[in-house]
Amino acid sequence: MQDASQQQTLPSLEELARGLSLRLLQPGLTDAALLEGCRRAVDAGLASVTVFPSDAERALRMLEGAPVSVAAIAGFPYGAMTTAAKLYEARDLLRRGVRDLGFVLNAAQLLSREFQQVETELLQIGRSCAEAGARLHAVVESALLAEDLCVIVTKICKRCDVSVLCISTGMHEALPGGAALDLFRRIARGELELGLMAPELELDPALEAWRRGASWISCGGAVRLAAEWKARIEAQMESGQAG
Predict the structure, then answer these.
(1) Which residues, listed in sequence order, are joined to residue 136 by a DSSP beta bridge?
(2) Shortest CA distance to 157 belongs to which of 191, 111, 109, 117?
(3) Taking the chain, what is the end-to-end CA distance rounded to the nearest angstrom?
(4) What are 17-46's pLDDT values in tens digits?
(5) What class is the 14-242 domain?
Protein backbone atom coordinates (compact mmCIF):
# COMPACT_ATOMS: atom_id res chain seq x y z
CA MET A 1 0.00 0.00 0.00
CA GLN A 2 1.23 3.49 -0.85
CA ASP A 3 1.96 5.91 1.98
CA ALA A 4 0.57 9.45 2.03
CA SER A 5 3.65 11.02 0.45
CA GLN A 6 3.50 8.61 -2.48
CA GLN A 7 -0.21 9.23 -2.99
CA GLN A 8 0.39 12.97 -3.15
CA THR A 9 2.80 12.52 -6.04
CA LEU A 10 0.31 10.57 -8.18
CA PRO A 11 -1.34 12.52 -10.99
CA SER A 12 -4.98 13.36 -11.43
CA LEU A 13 -6.68 11.77 -14.43
CA GLU A 14 -6.28 15.01 -16.40
CA GLU A 15 -2.60 15.32 -15.46
CA LEU A 16 -1.81 11.78 -16.52
CA ALA A 17 -3.76 12.06 -19.78
CA ARG A 18 -2.02 15.33 -20.66
CA GLY A 19 1.32 13.63 -20.10
CA LEU A 20 0.54 10.66 -22.37
CA SER A 21 1.34 10.30 -26.06
CA LEU A 22 -0.14 7.49 -28.14
CA ARG A 23 2.73 5.70 -29.87
CA LEU A 24 1.79 5.06 -33.51
CA LEU A 25 5.12 3.65 -34.68
CA GLN A 26 3.94 0.26 -35.91
CA PRO A 27 5.30 -0.95 -39.25
CA GLY A 28 2.57 -1.05 -41.87
CA LEU A 29 0.31 1.48 -40.12
CA THR A 30 -2.46 2.29 -42.63
CA ASP A 31 -4.18 5.65 -43.08
CA ALA A 32 -7.28 4.17 -41.48
CA ALA A 33 -5.30 3.00 -38.43
CA LEU A 34 -3.57 6.38 -38.17
CA LEU A 35 -6.94 8.16 -38.29
CA GLU A 36 -8.36 5.81 -35.65
CA GLY A 37 -5.35 6.39 -33.41
CA CYS A 38 -5.72 10.16 -33.70
CA ARG A 39 -9.43 9.91 -32.91
CA ARG A 40 -8.81 7.77 -29.84
CA ALA A 41 -6.12 10.18 -28.60
CA VAL A 42 -8.57 13.09 -28.87
CA ASP A 43 -11.36 11.17 -27.13
CA ALA A 44 -9.01 10.23 -24.27
CA GLY A 45 -7.69 13.79 -23.86
CA LEU A 46 -4.08 12.77 -24.51
CA ALA A 47 -1.24 15.22 -25.03
CA SER A 48 -0.14 13.95 -28.42
CA VAL A 49 0.38 11.13 -30.86
CA THR A 50 3.90 9.93 -31.68
CA VAL A 51 4.34 9.18 -35.38
CA PHE A 52 6.88 8.43 -38.08
CA PRO A 53 8.02 11.41 -40.18
CA SER A 54 6.12 10.04 -43.19
CA ASP A 55 2.87 10.14 -41.18
CA ALA A 56 3.40 13.57 -39.62
CA GLU A 57 1.66 15.69 -42.25
CA ARG A 58 -1.39 13.41 -42.38
CA ALA A 59 -1.60 13.35 -38.59
CA LEU A 60 -1.39 17.16 -38.52
CA ARG A 61 -4.30 17.39 -40.95
CA MET A 62 -6.34 14.85 -39.00
CA LEU A 63 -5.76 16.71 -35.73
CA GLU A 64 -6.19 20.24 -37.04
CA GLY A 65 -8.11 22.24 -34.44
CA ALA A 66 -7.84 19.48 -31.82
CA PRO A 67 -5.96 19.94 -28.50
CA VAL A 68 -3.67 17.01 -29.37
CA SER A 69 -0.24 17.70 -30.82
CA VAL A 70 1.83 15.62 -33.23
CA ALA A 71 5.19 14.38 -31.96
CA ALA A 72 7.32 13.14 -34.85
CA ILE A 73 10.69 11.43 -34.37
CA ALA A 74 13.68 12.28 -36.56
CA GLY A 75 16.42 9.68 -36.68
CA PHE A 76 14.22 6.87 -35.38
CA PRO A 77 15.09 4.32 -34.16
CA TYR A 78 18.88 4.59 -33.69
CA GLY A 79 19.86 8.10 -34.80
CA ALA A 80 22.60 6.50 -36.89
CA MET A 81 22.27 8.49 -40.12
CA THR A 82 24.62 11.29 -41.11
CA THR A 83 24.27 14.67 -39.44
CA ALA A 84 23.15 16.30 -42.69
CA ALA A 85 20.43 13.68 -43.28
CA LYS A 86 19.16 13.81 -39.70
CA LEU A 87 19.07 17.61 -39.62
CA TYR A 88 17.27 17.74 -42.95
CA GLU A 89 14.65 15.26 -41.73
CA ALA A 90 14.14 17.20 -38.50
CA ARG A 91 13.93 20.60 -40.19
CA ASP A 92 11.54 19.22 -42.80
CA LEU A 93 9.24 18.15 -39.96
CA LEU A 94 9.40 21.66 -38.51
CA ARG A 95 8.53 23.14 -41.92
CA ARG A 96 5.51 20.85 -42.12
CA GLY A 97 4.21 22.13 -38.79
CA VAL A 98 5.47 19.65 -36.18
CA ARG A 99 5.93 21.42 -32.85
CA ASP A 100 6.96 18.43 -30.72
CA LEU A 101 10.11 17.19 -32.41
CA GLY A 102 11.85 14.01 -31.29
CA PHE A 103 15.53 13.77 -32.19
CA VAL A 104 17.28 10.45 -31.57
CA LEU A 105 20.84 10.74 -30.31
CA ASN A 106 23.42 8.41 -31.83
CA ALA A 107 24.23 5.97 -29.02
CA ALA A 108 27.29 4.65 -30.90
CA GLN A 109 28.78 8.15 -30.95
CA LEU A 110 28.14 8.50 -27.23
CA LEU A 111 29.75 5.12 -26.54
CA SER A 112 32.71 6.20 -28.70
CA ARG A 113 32.86 9.40 -26.62
CA GLU A 114 32.33 11.59 -29.68
CA PHE A 115 30.58 14.15 -27.51
CA GLN A 116 31.34 17.15 -29.71
CA GLN A 117 29.58 15.49 -32.65
CA VAL A 118 26.49 14.74 -30.54
CA GLU A 119 26.43 18.27 -29.12
CA THR A 120 26.91 19.89 -32.52
CA GLU A 121 23.86 18.05 -33.89
CA LEU A 122 21.76 19.02 -30.90
CA LEU A 123 22.87 22.66 -30.96
CA GLN A 124 21.89 23.00 -34.60
CA ILE A 125 18.47 21.41 -34.30
CA GLY A 126 17.93 23.17 -30.96
CA ARG A 127 18.33 26.53 -32.67
CA SER A 128 15.93 25.46 -35.43
CA CYS A 129 13.33 24.39 -32.87
CA ALA A 130 13.68 27.66 -30.96
CA GLU A 131 13.13 29.63 -34.19
CA ALA A 132 10.05 27.54 -35.03
CA GLY A 133 8.60 27.69 -31.51
CA ALA A 134 8.87 23.91 -31.21
CA ARG A 135 9.75 21.68 -28.25
CA LEU A 136 12.82 19.51 -28.76
CA HIS A 137 12.69 15.99 -27.32
CA ALA A 138 16.19 14.46 -27.20
CA VAL A 139 15.69 10.69 -27.36
CA VAL A 140 18.38 8.46 -25.86
CA GLU A 141 18.72 4.68 -25.48
CA SER A 142 19.73 4.83 -21.83
CA ALA A 143 20.09 1.05 -21.44
CA LEU A 144 23.17 1.20 -23.69
CA LEU A 145 24.90 3.86 -21.62
CA ALA A 146 26.93 3.61 -18.43
CA GLU A 147 26.17 6.07 -15.63
CA ASP A 148 28.94 8.51 -16.61
CA LEU A 149 27.56 8.74 -20.15
CA CYS A 150 24.04 9.37 -18.83
CA VAL A 151 25.46 12.26 -16.82
CA ILE A 152 27.31 13.64 -19.84
CA VAL A 153 24.32 13.42 -22.19
CA THR A 154 22.13 15.19 -19.63
CA LYS A 155 24.62 18.05 -19.39
CA ILE A 156 24.80 18.24 -23.20
CA CYS A 157 21.00 18.48 -23.40
CA LYS A 158 20.96 21.28 -20.83
CA ARG A 159 23.26 23.31 -23.11
CA CYS A 160 21.30 22.73 -26.33
CA ASP A 161 17.74 24.12 -25.96
CA VAL A 162 16.35 20.64 -25.25
CA SER A 163 12.89 20.73 -23.66
CA VAL A 164 12.46 17.02 -22.89
CA LEU A 165 15.14 14.39 -22.30
CA CYS A 166 13.33 11.24 -23.33
CA ILE A 167 14.47 7.72 -22.43
CA SER A 168 13.71 5.15 -25.10
CA THR A 169 13.53 1.60 -23.80
CA GLY A 170 12.16 -1.87 -24.40
CA MET A 171 9.64 -4.01 -22.55
CA HIS A 172 11.96 -6.30 -20.59
CA GLU A 173 12.25 -4.19 -17.43
CA ALA A 174 9.69 -4.17 -14.62
CA LEU A 175 9.96 -0.39 -14.69
CA PRO A 176 11.46 0.60 -18.05
CA GLY A 177 14.08 3.26 -17.52
CA GLY A 178 13.50 3.37 -13.76
CA ALA A 179 17.09 3.72 -12.56
CA ALA A 180 17.92 6.03 -15.47
CA LEU A 181 14.99 8.29 -14.60
CA ASP A 182 16.36 8.72 -11.08
CA LEU A 183 19.81 9.56 -12.42
CA PHE A 184 18.61 11.93 -15.14
CA ARG A 185 16.29 13.72 -12.71
CA ARG A 186 19.15 14.26 -10.27
CA ILE A 187 21.44 15.71 -12.96
CA ALA A 188 18.74 17.70 -14.77
CA ARG A 189 17.83 19.55 -11.55
CA GLY A 190 14.54 20.74 -12.98
CA GLU A 191 16.13 22.33 -16.05
CA LEU A 192 14.81 19.59 -18.35
CA GLU A 193 11.54 17.74 -18.46
CA LEU A 194 11.91 13.96 -18.53
CA GLY A 195 10.10 11.59 -20.84
CA LEU A 196 9.81 7.86 -21.43
CA MET A 197 9.20 6.00 -24.69
CA ALA A 198 8.26 2.32 -24.52
CA PRO A 199 6.43 0.04 -26.96
CA GLU A 200 3.98 -0.91 -24.20
CA LEU A 201 3.58 -0.03 -20.54
CA GLU A 202 1.28 -1.23 -17.77
CA LEU A 203 -0.48 1.22 -15.47
CA ASP A 204 1.55 0.73 -12.27
CA PRO A 205 4.94 1.09 -14.02
CA ALA A 206 3.59 4.17 -15.82
CA LEU A 207 2.50 5.73 -12.53
CA GLU A 208 5.87 4.87 -10.98
CA ALA A 209 7.66 6.48 -13.94
CA TRP A 210 5.52 9.58 -13.41
CA ARG A 211 6.37 9.62 -9.71
CA ARG A 212 10.07 9.39 -10.60
CA GLY A 213 9.89 12.38 -12.91
CA ALA A 214 8.62 11.31 -16.35
CA SER A 215 6.03 13.95 -17.20
CA TRP A 216 5.76 12.83 -20.87
CA ILE A 217 5.17 9.12 -21.57
CA SER A 218 4.80 7.72 -25.08
CA CYS A 219 3.58 4.12 -25.45
CA GLY A 220 1.26 2.01 -27.55
CA GLY A 221 -1.23 1.58 -24.71
CA ALA A 222 -1.58 5.26 -23.79
CA VAL A 223 -5.36 5.31 -24.29
CA ARG A 224 -5.73 2.14 -22.21
CA LEU A 225 -3.60 3.64 -19.42
CA ALA A 226 -5.86 6.70 -19.21
CA ALA A 227 -8.96 4.50 -19.09
CA GLU A 228 -7.49 2.21 -16.42
CA TRP A 229 -6.43 5.14 -14.24
CA LYS A 230 -9.91 6.65 -14.55
CA ALA A 231 -11.47 3.34 -13.49
CA ARG A 232 -9.08 3.01 -10.54
CA ILE A 233 -9.77 6.56 -9.34
CA GLU A 234 -13.52 6.01 -9.59
CA ALA A 235 -13.24 2.70 -7.71
CA GLN A 236 -11.23 4.38 -4.95
CA MET A 237 -13.80 7.17 -4.68
CA GLU A 238 -16.66 4.66 -4.45
CA SER A 239 -14.75 2.67 -1.84
CA GLY A 240 -14.15 5.82 0.19
CA GLN A 241 -17.79 6.81 0.02
CA ALA A 242 -18.85 3.32 1.04
CA GLY A 243 -16.50 3.42 4.01
Answers:
(1) 101
(2) 191
(3) 17
(4) 999 999 999 988 999 999 999 999 999 999
(5) alpha beta
